[in-house]
Amino acid sequence: MALSRGGGDWAARAAEGRRLAPYAGDLAADTVLLALLLDASDSAVSRRTAEALARTGSPAAARLLTETLARADAALGDWIETGVEDATAPPPTR
Question: What pLDDT, in 10s, does the model give residues 56-78?
Fold first, then answer.
């Protein structure tokens, strides 16, 4: 599992969060995931990473989300919670 650290546009950082979410619980992955969840430069990265972690449903992912919410400011915390809601919301109907 190759880990990248920051940089790139928001879409690349969000994709990194989705790619690493299944590895929650691995120390190296957790370090990057935490940084992505707390991404101060773009809340979309936090939201998409939170969504990916919530979709995994693992205890390690839940721990990361809880830890992040304790560290995030109110605005970023709202985006992280929105990401979790995105993961649990039913698909839109037509």
Answer: 999 999 999 999 999 999 999 99
Residue 10 identity? W
Rg (CA), the chain: 12
Residue with tokens 């979410």, as numbered in its chain: 21
CA distances from 17 to 33, 46, 93 (A): 6, 8, 27
Nearest to residue 83, comparing CAs of 69, 94, 63?
69
**φ and ψ at 41, to 5 degrees?**
-85, -20
Euclidean distance between CA atoms 91 and 70, whole angstroms:
29
Compute mean pLDDT per 10 residues along the chain, 94 residues long, and list them.
Answer: 62 96 97 95 95 96 96 95 93 79
* The pair of three-digit structure tokens given for residue 27, joined into one six-digit string: 């120390």
Query: Would you state the structure tokens that stand for residue 81, as one six-digit string?
Result: 């919670």
Query: Does the predicted TM-score (pTM) go above 0.85?
Result: yes
